[in-house]
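Input sequence (95 aa), recorded before submission:
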Amino acid sequence: MLKLAHKAFIWGMYVLPEVRMAGVGRALLEHALEFAQKELGVRQVNLGVNTENTAALALYRRVGFEVYGTERGFLLVDGVLYDEHHMAWRVRSAA
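Predicted structure, C-alpha cell format:
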C-alpha cells in the first residue's frame, strides 16, 4: 500500500450536543490534520459526509476540505436514501 501512504481517512467525528458551537469540532479536526501532516507525513486527508449535514459541511469547508464527488444513495435509513459528499483536504505547498 506504499502508493497510498500519502493519504489518510477520517471515518467519523462526533461532538456532544452540549459543546457544539464552541469550537470543539474545529479544534479536534485541526489537531487531526496537523498530526496527519506532521507526524504521519500525510499529504491528503479524505472523508465522507451526509449531504444534509450542513453544519459538518460548513466546518469541513472552513478548514479547507473540498468536495470531489457525491455518491447517490450512499446510506439507507428507515427506507430513506441519503447521499454522501466525498471531500479531500490537501497540504498546501510552501511554493
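Checked by second reader. The radius of gyration is 14 Å.
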